Amino acid sequence: MRVAVFATCLVDALFPDVGKAVVRLLRRLDQDVEVPLRQTCCGQMHVNSGYPREALPLVRNHVEAFLEYDAIVVPSGSCAAAIRHQHADIAREYGDGVLVEGAELVARHTYELSEFLVDVLGVTDVGAYFPHRVTYHPTCHSLRLLRVGDRPLQLLRQVRGLELAELPDATSCCGFGGTFAIKNADVSTAMLADKMAGVLATRAEVCTACDSSCLMHIGGGLSRLNTGVRTVHLAEILAS
Amino acid sequence: MTGPLSGAPFPEAARKALADTQLRRNLARATSTIRAKSAAVVEELPDWAALREAGAAIKDDVLANLDRYLVQLEEQVAVRGGTVHWARDADEANRIVTRLVRRTGETSVVKVKSMATHEIGLNEALAHAGIAAHETDLAELILQLGHDTPSHILVPAIHRNRAEIREIFLREMRGVDPSLTDEPAALAEAARRHLRGQFLSASVAISGANFAVAETGTLAVVESEGNGRMCLTLPRTLITVMGIEKLIPTWRDLEVFLQLLPRSSTGERMNPYTSMWAGAIEGQEFHLVLLDNGRTATLADPRGRFALRCIRCSACLNVCPVYERTGGHAYGSVYPGPIGAVLSPQLTGVAHNTSLPFASSLCGACYDVCPVAIDIPSMLVHLRAEAVEAKGRTPERAAMAAAAWTMADSTRWSRALRSARLGRLLGGRRALPPPLSAWVRSRDLPEPPRHTFRDWWANQR
Predict the structure, then answer these.
(1) pLDDT in tens, B289-334
(2) Looking at the partner chain, which of A35, A52, A58 has a beta carbon nearest the beta carbon of B407?
(3) A130 — contact with chain B (CB < 8 Å)?
(4) Per residue in B110-166, pLDDT tens?
(5) DSSP string covering B220-237, please?
(6) Which residue in A has a C-alpha nearest to residue B418's C-alpha?
(7) CA-to-CA distance for B151 and B234, rounded, in angstroms?
(8) Given B149, B163, B212, B239, which is the most exposed site by the fewest CB atoms within 10 A?
(9) For residues A33 and A66, is the Cβ–Cβ distance under 8 A?
(10) ipTM of model
(11) How far is B125 from chain A (nearest CA, A)?
(12) Are B420 and B406 a contacting pair, CB within 8 Å?
């Protein structure tokens, strides 16, 4: 099985430690991972902001970068969902038949990190040690578009030293929503305020999730308020 | 036109609403109560998923064969002594209703709660013609007395709490007991006394419809208070205004929708009052106004048409994190919340409201609860593209095109990352140029990393 990591543009640019953690974790689980350097971005921001035509070259680049792999692991529920649910549609609307086929193939081989670990590798105990009180925020796209269910929690429960605190009103959106966070900054911030109140109520030291984008938003708010609570991607906990 | 849209763009209207802490408290309390009730009664049905699929399939059949079913409905209503009128838009519908009321010689009418008549601005049109329309639904009465507009499809006065309602009654309701308390029972009793006189004296009633059965010409109104039933049965003339998408093919199809609707809307197993009538009953005159008002244009869009499946249960409003914080008025439309964000721009044309499709974080909660499985998030994304097209050349479009060009090629992308890192070192964690500056109003930026992920991978190999 040829396994590739699609780090996502956000991790590549701003959160390289998340990408490194995915590589380290998969190697520890005896996977010979590759990071095709042709990868850039899944194009979700363009599609969801109303620029599907502009997303076409990104979809094409992504498909060509990952076509030959049997499994593509993505540390983002949102990007995995875009690849699975949007790429073939974009190819159909603006591209060609070859691209549609390629996009469908890549979509079938794409896994969000917790899906790959639990469903493909069949592991929940990845040998991690993380001695902190942690709360888990299920991101909307991992929850409702990918239906990852409790896979991330199954993985977290096996982490040594980790004390899991249940997040109140966990399934409500944190307010990130891509360009929504900018275009509707006030509503986004009102949603963030409630999410942060939930996180603080757990008295957790760390808030984790499957998406660096939502964590950047939650973490940015927690930092602004000097709460001392950190945001850490699931991959980083599992690789510890 | 008397269309549903007006006012400021969503972000601006939302900012005002967010500043109203009383409103936010009222909404959070009300939506979380309905949400929990509805979730509980949906969960207890083992065949909910199948019902939902059936509901969607029946509505899709209606939309695919609307021409045939509408003619069938007209025939069936006519056979049973009713008269059917066809209205292309709001103005035509208002003209028809005004003419029908005038013919009776009456200058006042009673109304059953109806979204379609709000959509066309019927009360205002009637007032213009010297006809007073009295709302009889409790929440609609509260709004009418308070010179207010609905902010929710099912619970139009959801933004008001009982203390505020008491104040409105004391101020506006003629002959109200000045010692009125804000106990729900006392408020309801005051409304009952106020309305009773109107029911008994009215000779014209105007209603909407939840469903119309093409096969039998039956119209159905479901409600909780019984006010609707009073209006539908007491007056001599009944005029029903109904959007053309409210059709269902057969009587049996009601079985599906009368399960889906109450559980999704009020969180009840069955709604307290279900009134059904076919044509005119003895001694009564019945008119049915079939309203298009942008619906056939919506039907023409293969991705947008699913909004016409909507049965106005408002489950999507109750689970929407955006609606919960802004309330309905911020949407500037009769149809607020997620369904409003996809329906309203289509009814008036997207160019007339380019901000509504963006009034969502695309969290997907609306799609999960929709009893007729409308994929609202995907439709929002589709309408965003239309809104972008409608706006033409903008700085955002240029930025998006530049970003796409850069990101479509890994060499250009890695070069861009290197120069961006230099820029970040100068900018700190709390400064960004507009429009990105909206981010740092409430959120710090992450610490800039020492290297990119791709550089790390390239080096360690």
Answers:
(1) 999 999 999 999 999 999 999 999 999 999 999 999 999 999 999 9
(2) A58
(3) no
(4) 999 999 999 999 999 999 999 999 999 999 999 999 999 999 999 999 999 999 999
(5) EEEESSSHHHHHHHSSSE
(6) A13
(7) 29
(8) B163
(9) no
(10) 0.96
(11) 35
(12) no
